[in-house]
Design brief:
Layout lengths: L2 H13 L2 H8 L3 H15 L4 E2 L6 E2 L1 H25 L8 E6 L4 H15 L4 E6 L2 H9 L5 E6 L6 E16 L12 H6 L2 E4 L4 H9 L10 E3 L2 H9 L4 E5 H4 L9 E5 L6 E9 L5 H13 L6 E2 L1
Parallel strand pairs: 3-4, 3-5, 7-8, 7-9
Antiparallel strand pairs: 1-2, 5-11, 6-9, 6-10, 6-11, 6-12
Helix pairs in contact: 1-2, 1-3, 1-4, 2-3
């Protein structure tokens, strides 16, 4: 039983397809198939059910795959520890970021991160929170920028900052003349939020204690759609502070107002797998991000 055969095992379990698994392992399909057959012969059990459209681990195969995954991960950890012992910031990090944060936060920090860590290469991937957590678990992402809390014992969490919510109202609306907006007033004015599945929707409802809001009132698919709907006078909404920066410079008739209720905010953090070979690099990145906060957010 070899480490390479275990890599084949994990790749096939993840893809469910011999061709895709071979491509992921940079070998021919015949090489991968031969390696897996050799492994099954050595173990004396059938690891994969090949009779289905998608190749699937057998019941004992699922347990073997999970053990193999841990071994492959530890082997990668050993290589990473040895390769980057001299300079933990001379590496490539696959970093996920939620869509309601990335376009507004990253422009503030990428230049500063590059200045602080010139050898660090960030490969960015914008993903919804459930997908990001799945890709952190399977190793496709090294770390992720998302809203807290994240209750997963397999992940390390470094809180970075608190981002208040702002009330976005049409320029001609009565609330646009107020110094601040009460949550009850905002809800009564026709509150527009993202559709179900967007983490910002749940964050806004929880922060403002509006979990009872009727689902039919939640209509938009993105922050930009929400902004346009408000500009057209179709309702009001909650906008994270960073997304609101420069909102009036677009020419849209939208006015931003602070929310009078204390605590109407979301917390942002950097998360990564426990025992990740990248842990020292990600921890230093988290320190840099926490020290370089954009305007409008609050330190934790």
């Amino acid at each position: 039983m070899t480490l390479q055969e275990l890599r084949y095992l994990v790749a096939l379990a993840d893809s469910g397809h011999f061709g895709q698994a071979a491509e992921a392992c940079f070998v021919s399909q015949s090489t991968l198939s031969t390696g897996l057959k050799k492994l099954e012969d050595f173990l004396g059990v059938i690891v994969f059910d090949r009779s289905l459209k998608r190749v699937t681990p057998t019941p004992i195969g699922r347990e073997i795959v999970e053990s193999a995954r841990r071994i492959v991960d530890e082997a990668a950890r050993i290589r990473e520890l040895a390769s980057f012992a001299k300079d933990p910031m001379d590496r490539t990090l696959h970093l996920g970021v939620i869509p309601t944060l990335g376009p507004y936060y990253l422009p503030h920090v990428l230049t500063q991160v590059r200045a602080a860590h010139p050898k660090l290469r960030l490969l960015l991937r914008e993903e919804m929170t459930p997908h990001m957590l799945a890709h952190l678990a399977d190793g496709k992402l090294d770390a992720g920028l998302l809203a807290l809390p994240i209750d997963d014992p397999a992940l390390e969490v470094a809180p970075l900052f608190v981002e208040p919510f702002l009330a976005a109202v049409p320029g001609g609306h009565a609330l646009a003349k107020a110094g601040s907006v009460n949550i009850d007033e905002l809800a009564a004015a026709g509150l527009l939020l993202l559709e179900e599945g967007h983490c910002l929707r749940d964050q806004a409802l929880e922060a403002c204690h509006l979990q009872g809001l009727k689902s039919e009132e939640i209509r938009a698919t993105s922050l930009e759609t929400l902004r346009q709907m408000v500009a057209m006078g179709l309702g009001v909404t909650l906008i994270p502070t960073l997304a609101g920066a420069g909102i009036n410079a677009t020419g849209e008739q939208v006015t931003l107002k602070p929310i009078s209720k204390p605590g109407a905010a979301r917390s942002i953090g950097l998360v990564w797998r426990r025992r990740s070979a990248m842990a020292s690099s990600i921890e230093r990145l988290a320190e840099t991000l926490a020290a370089k906060l954009p305007p409008g957010v609050l330190a934790i």
